[in-house]
Amino acid sequence: MTSMVRSLLTLLTLLLAFGTTLTAQNGEVDIIYLKNGKTVIGTIVEKIDGKTVVIETKEGTELIDYADIKEMVKEFVPSVSGLAPMNANAGASVVIYGSFPASRPAKSSVTFSGTEATVTQWRKDKITVTVPSVGAGQHEVVVTIGGQKGVAEDRFTLSGVTQQQQQLQQQRNRKMEAAQSEPVYQEPMETGSQLNGFWWHFAMSKPSGVFGEVEGDEAGFAKNGYSFGFEGRVKVEENLFVPVGFNLASNELNLDELNKNNPGVFESEDGSYLHMWITLGIGASVNFSPSSYLYASADAGLMLAHRPDLEAKVIDFKVESADAFTGGFGYSVGFVAGNAVSFGMKYFSATPTYTLSSSLGSGSSNEEDLDQKTSLMQLFVAINFD
């Protein structure tokens, strides 16, 4: 590669970075808060974790050490292009034109000389507000989003306007309406429940059926345990979704019950049943609002099961731990609040076949297959991280 080509590539890279920085000033920008109180605003073009950050600003390129950084965030920089009308009484509606996020952020406000106005409509190209009760005269209009501000170039006049000011206002209004006459595309609002999401589950794992029994040939001698996992949901139709889940559960072997009549006879080195399963299903919802609903799903999946070892010390009898892989089925029911938190119940059942190795004293080891029905019920709380 010749030196001329390298120079052209370097120049092109700088121009692209500079153009990106200028464009970002009217929308989302990177903000670095330094420990010394300084704030750097621009576009991060390179980040080496734990070492340095390269950011393009209006003034040029800055290289910042990680040790000097207090926090790095992204914020939207609003831009105000005009007001309509330019004067009105308190309580009147005023439209603020400019560039804003498509939906109103939680940390946002519109103020007239520091007094907050009530927002009645928020769009990406204009905000409609009710003029607050501020003193007569001219007032600075500021749109604040997070830590960034957009200030109207012209001041708003509250009552007492002159005829000349009214004429200027009418001219500005006509120009503003003409500029906004072109149709603006708006994404259609989602109806029904917000079924898409990625949920983390934390649950109490309760053995169900023979898996938790302490008597009989199929007794599992399992105690209550705990489990965690996740579930991804994909909306396919109104009120219908496809859940894909993963769960890992641990339930202790109930040695207390085994040793109930003969204390200390039975021991186990690992002492826990472990189960891991993945599922795929179909679910339906009953809506109370777009973000709160009841749901139920039916699932099928695969389970990997671990059975703990067991030793009877009195007769020197040992059963080695064993693993099995099998299919199963289950279902879930729950309630979602605010599309953020969910709670309910999950159930999964399978019948793994274990190949058990046992020995009595110093005798030879015997192997046999054991089908042990395993059913788990989970009482869970889930958090949406989508």
Number of strand elements: 29
Query: Uncertain runs with pLDDT below 50, 5 residues or more?
Result: 4-25
Percent strand: over 45%
Q: What form results from the Cα inertia axes?
A: elongated
CATH class of the largest domain: Mainly Beta
Quote the CATH topology of the largest domain: Porin
Task: Describe the main β-sheet briefly.
Answer: 8 strands, antiparallel, barrel
State the CATH architecture of the largest domain. Answer: Beta Barrel
Mean pLDDT comes to: 84
The overall number of domains is: 3
Describe the structure.
- The chain has about 375 residues and is mainly beta.
- Helices cover about 10% and strands about 55% of the residues.
- It contains three helices and 29 strands.
- The strands form six sheets. It has an eight-stranded antiparallel barrel with strand order 17-18-19-21-22-25-26-29.
